């Protein structure tokens, strides 16, 4: 019953959530108590002198920890202080790891959707690409969906966009929010004019397909 595909706060029932961390979280209590994890290199915590160390840590966790279901979050962020050239270098390497280890990629994107869509068109990855915390308008959702992205929606979202996302491409998350994933799913169901039960079932099936049947 994996429902929350991206969180930094472990819920009371850990098996319902995919906890996300990076090297700075290696000693956090959550990484030891999580049922399922995703690991990546966040652009906020990337420096020229720690990229190789982070990559070594990432490769080690991916190859030794059976709980790893995805790589991420990782991506590109125009608003953070990390040099964009370094972000691109790290993200390209992470894409290679996603393909090498056959793991879905959970993407952090801030004002970089054009670059990320261009990369997907160039690389043509086999593994699913998931935009986490999607808040964009329906036009942006349409552009991403035409390239077969999956869109994960959290506490804040664009109502009109959420209405247009095909059910097989929709996921839900809490991210940094302390909200219960059930409350977020309830709001999504209301906006999409679906029953909560049917949406929960679809979200579980999507998570099962993306993370457990590779």
Could you explain how this protein is built, in words?
- This protein has 214 residues and is an alpha/beta fold.
- The protein has helices spanning 29-33, 51-64, 84-101, 113-123, 138-146, 159-164, 181-192, 196-212, and strands at 4-7, 17-21, 36-39, 68-77, 105-110, 129-131, 150-153, 170-172.
- It has an eight-stranded parallel β-sheet.
- β3 (36-39), α2 (51-64) and β4 form a beta-alpha-beta unit.
- The chain is globular.
- The mean pLDDT is 97.
Mean pLDDT: 97
Helical fraction equals 40-55%
C-alpha-based Rg, rounded: 16 Å
Number of strands: 8
The quaternary structure here is single chain
Describe the structure using short key phrases.
8 helices; globular; alpha/beta; eight-stranded parallel sheet; 214 residues
Topology:
Layout: E1 4-7, E2 17-21, H1 29-33, E3 36-39, H2 51-64, E4 68-77, H3 84-101, E5 105-110, H4 113-123, E6 129-131, H5 138-146, E7 150-153, H6 159-164, E8 170-172, H7 181-192, H8 196-212
Parallel strand pairs: 1-2, 2-3, 3-4, 4-5, 5-6, 6-7, 7-8
Helix pairs in contact: 2-3
Short description:
With 214 residues, the protein is α/β, with parallel strands linked by helices. The protein contains 8 helices and 8 strands.
């Amino acid at each position: 019953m994996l429902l929350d595909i991206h969180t930094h706060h472990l819920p009371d029932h850990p098996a319902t959530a995919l906890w996300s961390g990076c090297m700075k979280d290696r000693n956090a209590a959550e990484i030891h108590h999580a049922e399922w994890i995703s690991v990546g290199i966040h652009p906020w915590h990337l420096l020229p002198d720690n990229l190789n160390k982070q990559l070594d840590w990432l490769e080690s966790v991916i190859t030794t920890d059976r709980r790893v279901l995805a790589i991420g979050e990782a991506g590109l962020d125009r608003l953070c202080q990390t040099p964009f050239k370094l972000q691109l270098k790290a993200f390209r390497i992470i894409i290679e790891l996603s393909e090498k280890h056959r793991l879905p990629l959970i993407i952090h994107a801030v004002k970089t959707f054009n670059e990320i869509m261009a990369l997907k068109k160039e690389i043509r990855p086999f593994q699913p690409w998931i935009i986490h915390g999607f808040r964009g308008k329906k036009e942006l959702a349409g552009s991403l969906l035409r390239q077969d992205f999956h869109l994960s929606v959290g506490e804040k979202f664009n109502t009109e966009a959420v209405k247009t996302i095909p059910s097989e491409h929709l996921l839900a998350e809490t991210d940094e929010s302390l909200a219960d994933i059930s409350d977020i799913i309830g709001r999504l169901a209301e906006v999409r004019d679906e029953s909560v039960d049917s949406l929960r079932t679809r979200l579980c099936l999507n998570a099962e397909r993306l993370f457990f049947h590779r």
